Every structure is written in C-alpha cells, then in structure tokens.
Amino acid sequence: MERVGIREFRAGAAAAVRRAEAGQRTVITVAGRPAAQLGPLTSAAGERTIDELVAQGLLIAPRRSGAPNDVTVSVWGTPRLDRLLREVRG
To answer: How far is residue 13's CA from residue 37's CA, in Å, rounded to a whole number?
Structure first.
C-alpha cells in the first residue's frame, strides 16, 4: 500500500485514480498522518456486481447493449396485466 501526501496526491490525482482502478490502494496523508484511502471499488456487504460475475465466469455478458425494450404503455384506470402484456407484445 502506497502512502502519498495530500500535495503530491493533488498534483497526480489522475494517475492515483488509474492505479486505484488497477487494484492498488493508496493512503493519503495530511501532515504525515493517514487521512483517507483511495482504492478500487468494492461491492457492498457481500453483494457482487454484474461486472464481477462476468469476470469470474459465473454470468454471460449480454450480447446487445443499451436499455432493454423501452416500451411505455399509457394506462387509464386499473387494467389487467395480461391485457397490458398482449398490447406490448403485439
């Protein structure tokens, strides 16, 4: 783990972020005392992201990019779900 003073960090912030993206953790010090830590993103409390699952081979990445079927249906009142699905599917 690398230790960097705040002035040095400010001068080379972009490089420090690239190193964090690569997996390196950096401790940022103020007046010689540790004040913050910069490192790679981790998922919250045991949850894994889709990118992590793809990297581990546990999930297959989608073939198409973009948002999935953005179809908006105007709804008046409380129609039945099967009728809405029939309208969306055609």
So the answer is: 13
